[in-house]
Design goal:
The chain is an alpha/beta fold. It folds into 2 domains: 3-57, Winged helix-like DNA-binding domain superfamily/Winged helix DNA-binding domain (Arc Repressor Mutant, subunit A, Orthogonal Bundle); 66-246, Rossmann fold, CATH 3.40.50.1360. The chain is built from 10 helices and 15 strands. A 7-stranded parallel β-sheet has the order 6-5-4-9-12-14-15, sandwiched between helices. The protein has a 3-stranded antiparallel β-sheet with strand order 1-3-2. A hairpin with a 3-residue loop joins strand 10 and strand 11. The protein starts with a helix and ends with a strand.
Amino acid sequence: MNSRQQTILQLVNDRRRISVGELARAAGVSEVTIRQDLTLLEKRSYLKRVHGSALALESDDVDARMMSNFILKQKLAQYAATQINDGETVFIESGSANALLARYLAERKHVTLITVSHYIANLLKETECEVIVLGGIYQKKSETVVGPLTRMCIQQVHFNKAFIGIDGYHAETGFTGRDMMRADVVNAVLEKGVENIILTDSSKFGQIQANPLRPLAKIGRVITDSRLSLDYQHQLKRSGIAFDLVNE
């Protein structure tokens, strides 16, 4: 994927639907070139083409998700890194913001990282950071492991903090995930009783996915951006969950 296609994908993911003409003006190329790029990106399952426009997909591909709100996710990751001390052992779950956090930590802190994400492990292969990758059933699209073996591995390792991604939050459901098996991995982490921190941009608030992340009482903190509405801030407070708002 070249830089122009990355820009296109970020615009599609940010806007959810955008016309070919708008993409052409933003990228500074012809509509013919944009259509060629969209054809390629659709073949790779990064987006969906409709007449005259491109639509965002709910994709498990980490590269695709990374392009959505990339600059904001970078800021969230940089802030989250300040919450970790040298010498700590940290569990980092899968997801784009968590991948940025892992890279930031590996380059600037002396920590041990435990992860279920092969994407994250590969991202850190040129760093000096010690990385422990847990076993399990490999999900090729999300590049993460899940299942009973993963749950057993989580029970056998020790860490100071855990950073978790989410796909949704609503007052009636709490935090939720789209994938049942990955939600089970998160729930295994929550059962450990360590300091659990959710790292997410505020766009996930107001969405409801099928699989609950529980128990809610085991989630101590949310790191998100300053667009989080006052209603959701009050809901988090009522649930006893602290939150840090990072300016865009």
